[in-house]
Task: inverse folding
């Protein structure tokens, strides 16, 4: 499994989102409080962020544990952003792809992360792979289930689906092909956050204070008020000011 989060709000140092809270994503790499599967997220990490006036995000990813990266403290101190997606990784299977297998995955203006595991990977999704264009398969960043899920989502986005359609249709399709999969997906374009719950936890909270903003995360980063747990089998669509929750349909047997 993994832990991930997305932030929309005023420009802040990345450290305010990643490392400063008492139970931050940094701490969740070795001591998650709500993680249902796995105990340590030490198989890589990544952070993606948007700079003012540039719709294409930047990323910083590493193959090792977040606590062992000597460059992150300086990066987190000086880089500021109002839109962030970050994740710490617990690999489902051993993978030779290093940092390429660490979320967030990116394409155009989008950042994507997967918290979960695809049952029977990779054989269970052979039929879905056959439905993707060859360039989507040959262009996979890594040979892991999360990278393949991103290929499915990205293909739908490129075909004109909106973020909610791309995530919900991918979850339903994969859950039908690989029952028992855990498919908590997280997607942002720097202005919105879209996510699914399918097998693990997710919470959302408006930012405290007057400034509009939203935080969506696998688990709360502090014990403050305002956190709301998202029910399992739910699609979340959020902006800086609003959250919409929609039940996800179970796949047809």
Result:
């Amino acid at each position: 499994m993994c832990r991930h989060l997305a932030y929309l709000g005023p420009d802040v140092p990345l450290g305010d989102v990643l490392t400063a809270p008492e139970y931050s994503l940094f701490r969740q790499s070795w001591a998650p409080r709500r993680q249902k599967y796995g105990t340590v997220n030490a198989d890589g990490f990544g952070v993606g962020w948007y700079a003012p006036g540039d719709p294409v995000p930047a990323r910083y990813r590493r193959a090792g544990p977040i606590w062992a990266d000597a460059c992150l403290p300086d990066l987190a101190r000086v880089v500021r952003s109002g839109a962030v997606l970050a994740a710490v990784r617990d690999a489902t299977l051993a993978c030779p792809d290093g940092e390429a297998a660490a979320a967030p995955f990116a394409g155009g203006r989008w950042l994507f992360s997967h918290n979960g595991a695809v049952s029977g990977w990779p054989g269970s999704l052979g039929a879905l792979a056959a439905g993707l264009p060859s360039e989507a398969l040959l262009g996979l960043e890594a040979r892991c289930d999360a990278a393949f899920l991103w290929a499915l989502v990205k293909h739908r986005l490129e075909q004109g689906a909106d973020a909610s359609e791309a995530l919900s249709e991918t979850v339903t399709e994969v859950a039908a092909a690989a029952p028992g999969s855990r498919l908590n997906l997280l997607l942002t374009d720097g202005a919105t956050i879209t996510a699914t719950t399918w097998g693990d936890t997710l919470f959302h909270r408006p930012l405290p204070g007057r400034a509009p903003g939203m935080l969506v995360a696998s688990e709360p980063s502090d014990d403050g008020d305002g956190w709301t747990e998202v029910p399992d089998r739910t699609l979340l669509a959020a902006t800086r000011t609003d959250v919409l929750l929609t039940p996800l349909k179970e796949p047809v047997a």
Q: What stands out?
A: The chain has seven helices and 13 strands.
